[in-house]
Amino acid sequence: MKKEIIADILVTLIFMMFLYAAFSKYFDFSGFKRAMGNQPFPVWLSQLLVIVLPPAEVITATLLLFEKTRKSGLIATIILMITFTFYIIAILLHLYPAEPCTCGGIIRLLTWKQHLLFNLFFIAIAVISLKITPGKRQEIARSARSSL
């Protein structure tokens, strides 16, 4: 029971982070699109990311809402956050000539080192949530015990 409450709290934090990130991009879509255009990526990739990133964040957040899809949402969270983290590490290692940030809202005010810590925090809580979220077998066993 205690693990479930902790998992719910951690998943709620991830959910809110993804919704905030996605909707801050939607609310300033022209700024997000411009910032993506300044990325050190090929133009086609920047244009693709403009289309894919906000919905991916909303879909990931939505997956976290339901018990049946929560583990998929946590895996998607880990994949997205690790990808974003590799980008930040590349910036910190000066592998790109420019350091544009496409994050929205208050997240864009973070330094790159703070951003790295932010991402590592969310990766950690996603991994912890994945570990303590009961699987289908555990849920079946728990419901069988409670019906006795």
UniProtKB/TrEMBL annotation:
<keyword id="KW-0472">Membrane</keyword>
<dbReference type="GO" id="GO:0016020">
    <property type="term" value="C:membrane"/>
</dbReference>
<feature type="transmembrane region" description="Helical">
    <location>
        <begin position="43"/>
        <end position="66"/>
    </location>
</feature>
<keyword id="KW-0812">Transmembrane</keyword>
<keyword id="KW-1133">Transmembrane helix</keyword>
<dbReference type="Pfam" id="PF07291">
    <property type="entry name" value="MauE"/>
</dbReference>
<feature type="transmembrane region" description="Helical">
    <location>
        <begin position="73"/>
        <end position="96"/>
    </location>
</feature>
<dbReference type="GO" id="GO:0030416">
    <property type="term" value="P:methylamine metabolic process"/>
</dbReference>
<feature type="transmembrane region" description="Helical">
    <location>
        <begin position="5"/>
        <end position="23"/>
    </location>
</feature>
<protein>
    <recommendedName>
        <fullName>Methylamine utilisation protein MauE domain-containing protein</fullName>
    </recommendedName>
</protein>
<dbReference type="InterPro" id="IPR009908">
    <property type="entry name" value="Methylamine_util_MauE"/>
</dbReference>
<feature type="transmembrane region" description="Helical">
    <location>
        <begin position="116"/>
        <end position="133"/>
    </location>
</feature>
<feature type="domain" description="Methylamine utilisation protein MauE">
    <location>
        <begin position="5"/>
        <end position="130"/>
    </location>
</feature>
